[in-house]
Amino acid sequence: MHTSSKLTKEFTKKWVKGLQICCSSKKNMDVLERKKKIKLCADIALASAKNATTSWSIALISEAKKEGENEILVDNLLGPESPFKQQKTIPLMSACHKRVRSKKILKRSCSVGQRMKKMGPPKSNLAIYIAKTLVKKRTQVLQRLVPGGESMDEFSLIKEALDYILSLRVQVDVMRSLAHAAEVSNQSDPNVFG
Amino acid sequence: MFTTHSRLDAVKPDPGMDAYWAGLDGGAFGDQLGYGYINPNTNQRLLTLGNSTSVSVSVSVSPKKRKGQSLQVVSDKEKKIKGCSEGESRTTNQNSNSKEASTNTSSKEKSKVSEVQKPDYIHVRARRGQATDSHSLAERVRREKISERMKYLQDLVPGCNKITGKAGMLDEIINYVQSLQKQVEFLSMKLATVNPGLDFNVDNVFTKEIFQTSTSEFPALGCSSVDSAYYQLNSTDQVVSYCGLDMGINSAEMGLRRGISAPISVPETFMDSSCFNQIQPTANWDADLQNLYKMEFEQVTLIPFQSHQFTGSNEGSNMKTET
C-alpha cells in the first residue's frame, strides 16, 4: 500500500498540472468537453505516474497521443521523461503484434485438435472445452477493457489488469475527494466561483 | 502406428485423447513429433503419472536423435513430478536406463512395463491435461503463475473470496474494472459540472483544502511533535469528524485565503483531505497514512521553492515559507 500512496501523490500532482494546462488554454467549454478534458488529464496523469513500468500505461499514453491536439498536453505533462517517447512504443507494439499473430496461427492449428477432441467421449472433454471457452471469452473481454490489452498473453494480461485496477482505484479516490472538496467549498462559499 | 494404437485401446485410452495430442502437437510443436505421436517405429507407451495432471509420453529408444532427447526430457520431467507411483517411477528409471540399450531390449522392457502400466494407466486415465513433457511442464508453470496472480486478485477485488474458478474470477475482475472506469467517468462529469470555472478555481479549491486541514491543527508546520499528534489523531475513526471540524474552524479564515491564487503545495497537502475522505471506504489505508503524512510534512518545507507564484503575505504563505 505504500506504493499506492506514492502513486496517489504522483497522480494528483500530474493531474492538477494537466488540468491547469488544458483549462488555461480554453476559457469557455461546455460540460461534455470539460468532462473529456478532465478525464483525459486524469488518465494521462495516471499513466505517466506509472513511469512506463507497465504496458497498459504505455498503451494509454500512445493512444492519447494519437489525437493531435492532445499531444501538446501529453508532452507537457510528461515533461522530459523519455520512456514514453514514441520510439519505445513502436517496437513494443510490433513485438506484441507479432506475438499476437503467431498466437493466432497457433490457435488456428490447435482448433483442429479441438474439433477432434470434441468427438471423443463427451464427458470430460466437453466440460473442459466449455470451461476453456468461458475463460477465453472472458479474457477477450478483459483485453478490451485494459488499455493495450489486445497484444498480451493471458498471464501478462492478468498482471496488467492487477496493476490497472490498483491505479484505477487511486484515480477514483483522488477524483472523488476532489469532487467532494469542490462540493464542500461550493456549498460554503458559493460566491467563490462567481 | 496402429499397432500401438491397438495396444493402447486395450488399455482403454480415450481415442480422442490421442487425436487431441496429435492435433495439439502437430499444431503447436512442429518438430516434436516424437512426443505426442504414436510413433510407428518405436513402441510407444503412454505413461500417465498418478497424481499429476500432466501426462508424459515415454519414447522408446530409437536411432533417431530427437527421440533420445525426448526420452531424456521425459525422464527428467518424471523425476520432477512428485507423487509418482512406484511402478511408474520404476518404469521411468527403466526408460532412462534403457536409453543406451538396444531397441530390442528396450522394446521388451517396454512391453513388460506397459503391461505393468496398464492398471495404473486406467486409473489415471482422466488425468490428462497436456500432451508432452516439456510442454506440460511449461504449462504447469504457467498455470501456477496464473493461479498465483488469481490469488492476489482475490485480495484486490472485493467479494472474490468465494469464487474459485478462473472464469468466475475473470468475471469479477471484468466487473470491477468496468465499475471503476464508470466511476472515473462519473466523477469527471461531476467535476465538470460542479465547477463552472474550473480552470483557476482548481487552485482555489486546493488551497482552501490545504488551509482547512493544515492551519487548524498546525500553527507551526514541520514540528515533529505536532506531527506525531496529528498521526495519532488520524489513525482513529475520528478522522471523519476531524474533517468536519476543519471546515467549521476555518470558515472564518476562508476570507483570508480567498485571495490566494497560487497553487501552494497543491498536491502534497491536498493529500490530507483526500486521505481523510478515503479512510471511510478503504480501511486498509491506515497503515500507510502515517507514512503519507510524514512524507507530506517533509515536503512542506519544499513548498516555498515550488510556489513561485506567491503573491501577498497571507498567513498561509508565511507559514509555508517560514518552515
H-E string of chain A: HHHHHHH
The largest sheet of chain B is: 2 strands, antiparallel
> H/E series of chain B, N to C?
HHHEEHHHHHHHHHHHHH
List segments of chain A where confidence is low: pLDDT < 50 over at least 5 consecutive residues: 87-91
Structural class of chain B: mainly alpha
Oligomer: heterodimer
Number of strands of chain A: 0
Explain the overall architecture.
- The complex is a heterodimer of chains A (194) and B (323).
- Chain A is an all-alpha fold.
- Chain A has helices at residues 2-25, 31-49, 55-66, 68-78, 86-118, 122-145, 154-188.
- Helices cover 81% and strands 0% of the residues of chain A.
- Chain B is built from 16 helices and two strands.
- Chain B has helices at residues 2-10, 15-28, 33-36, 65-80, 86-97, 103-123, 133-156, 166-194, 198-217, 224-235, 238-250, 254-257, 266-279, 286-300, 303-306, 315-322; strands at residues 45-48, 55-58.
- Chains A and B meet through helix 1, helix 2, helix 5, helix 6 and helix 7 of A and helix 2, helix 7, helix 8, helix 9 and helix 13 of B.
List keywords for this structure.
heterodimer, A: 194 residues, 7 helices, elongated, B: 323 residues, mainly alpha, two-stranded antiparallel sheet, 16 helices, disordered N terminus, disordered C terminus
What's a quick, concise take on this entry?
With 194 residues, chain A is an all-alpha fold. In chain A, 81% of the residues lie in helices and 0% in strands. Chain B is mainly α and 323 residues long.
Compile the SSE list and pairings:
The complex is a heterodimer of chains A (194) and B (323).
Chain A: H1 2-25, H2 31-49, H3 55-66, H4 68-78, H5 86-118, H6 122-145, H7 154-188
Chain B: H1 2-10, H2 15-28, H3 33-36, E1 45-48, E2 55-58, H4 65-80, H5 86-97, H6 103-123, H7 133-156, H8 166-194, H9 198-217, H10 224-235, H11 238-250, H12 254-257, H13 266-279, H14 286-300, H15 303-306, H16 315-322
Antiparallel strand pairs in B: 1-2
Helix pairs in contact in B: 4-5, 5-6, 9-11, 9-13, 10-14, 11-13, 13-14
